[in-house]
Structure formats: structure tokens, C-alpha cells
Write a sequence for this structure.
């Protein structure tokens, strides 16, 4: 039997690559080849995960939606902080008064149920949270007027889970 027509036996290991190339390793073959292949595959997997994480982390981690996120980063002056407690179908306080140009930091605490806090006039919202959790938004009040804030979960808004942001 010549070298090219060797018979493959049960104890042999056949290794195939993505390109379709294959090699049969004989029992007692150098295990460094197998380890090398596993290391290369592992490194490719780590590289792919790193690229995916870099893509995810390049997106802003803030919970502010819209253009106010950029404005919040470039604030001048003190930040006015408010805590709004939410429970089933009510906010406390249900009115917030500020001046145009103020930077607002609103921490929404969920006292009971599943809720969020949305301010359409500023395109701002928290994530939906559960009892005991909190979420924070920060933005610049750059428009005057009265803006409703509300819970957009199910029909909570219609059931009265609404407040007012008054910007003078």
C-alpha cells in the first residue's frame, strides 16, 4: 500500500477546517496540533465577542431618548434633582416646576407594580421598572410650557398615572 492510499482506522481522528481541507491524525499524533486549532477557534470567538461588545458599548448607556441626551452632557450651572415616586396609577409629586434652561435630573422610584416615566415634550423616558427599582433621566428644560409626564405601561395613563412638568 502506498502513502496516499492509507486506510482510515477507527482510532484515527479526522480534522476539517471551514475551507473544506481535512487531515487525518493517526493515533499517537502530536496533540499540539489539536490544541493549536482549539486555541485559534477560541481566539476567533473572543474577537467576535469583543467586536459585538464594542458595538453595544458605543451606544449611549443613558436612559434619555432624543436630542436632550446631548444637551444634558453640555450643561452649565447646577442640576435640579427631583425624585418622583410611582405606585399604581399615581405619581408623587404630580407637579414639577422649573425654569427654562434648568438641567433636570429626575429619579423615578417604583413603589408598587410595573411602571415607567415618559415626558413626550422632551422625548424623554425611563425604562420600564418593577417594585423597588429606580431609573434616572437627565435633560435640559429648553422649552417653556406645561408638559405631561405619565406611565406608558398598559392603560396606566388613562387610569390617572399622570403628572405635570411646568417650565417657565
Amino acid at each position: 500500500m502506498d502513502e496516499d492510499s492509507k486506510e482510515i482506522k477507527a482510532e484515527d481522528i479526522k480534522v476539517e477546517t471551514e475551507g473544506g481541507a481535512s487531515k487525518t491524525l493517526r493515533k499517537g499524533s502530536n496533540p499540539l496540533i489539536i490544541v493549536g486549532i482549539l486555541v485559534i477557534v477560541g481566539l476567533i470567538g473572543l474577537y467576535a465577542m469583543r467586536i459585538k461588545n464594542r458595538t453595544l458599548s458605543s451606544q449611549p448607556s443613558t436612559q434619555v431618548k432624543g436630542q436632550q441626551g446631548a444637551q444634558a452632557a453640555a450643561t452649565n450651572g447646577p442640576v435640579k434633582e427631583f425624585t418622583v415616586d410611582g405606585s399604581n396609577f399615581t405619581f408623587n409629586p404630580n407637579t414639577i416646576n422649573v425654569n427654562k434652561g434648568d438641567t433636570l435630573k429626575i429619579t423615578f422610584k417604583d413603589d408598587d407594580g410595573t411602571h415607567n416615566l415618559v415626558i413626550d415634550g422632551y422625548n424623554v423616558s425611563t425604562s420600564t421598572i418593577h417594585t423597588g427599582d429606580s431609573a434616572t433621566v437627565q435633560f435640559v428644560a429648553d422649552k417653556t410650557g406645561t408638559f405631561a409626564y405619565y406611565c406608558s405601561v398598559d392603560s396606566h395613563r388613562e387610569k390617572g398615572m399622570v403628572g405635570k412638568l411646568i417650565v417657565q
Notes: The chain has two domains: 7-57, 68-167. The longest helix spans residues 31-57. Residues 115 and 153 are 6 Å apart (CA to CA).
